[in-house]
């Protein structure tokens, strides 16, 4: 293998690892602020008097 092919393989492997880490991140499971069921304020603050 020549040097260019080794660099290309390393870049592809690095890209795959970064994408896997990004897509398997637990942050994707969280709701954005203000969209949870008990949020009252746009910042996501919870409602204190929930009826």
Q: Give the number of helices.
A: 1
**Would you tell me the structural class of the helices and strands?**
mainly alpha
Give the end-to-end Cα distance, rounded to a whole number of Å.
68 Å
What is the residue-averaged pLDDT?
75
The biggest sheet amounts to:
none
**Order of secondary-structure elements:** H
Shape: rod-shaped
Oligomer: single chain
Radius of gyration: 21 Å
Instruction: Report the count of strand segments.
Output: 0
Return residue spans where pLDDT drops below 50 for at least 5 consecutive residues.
none
Strand content: under 5%
Could you walk me through the main structural features you see in this protein, from its secondary elements to its overall organization?
This protein has about 50 residues and is mostly helical. The protein is rod-shaped, with a radius of gyration of 21 Å. It has one helix spanning about 5-25. The protein contains one helix and no strands.
Give a short overview.
The model has no long low-confidence stretch (mean pLDDT 75).
Which labels suit this protein?
51 residues; 1 helix; mainly alpha; rod-shaped
Present the secondary structure layout:
Blueprint: H1 3-23
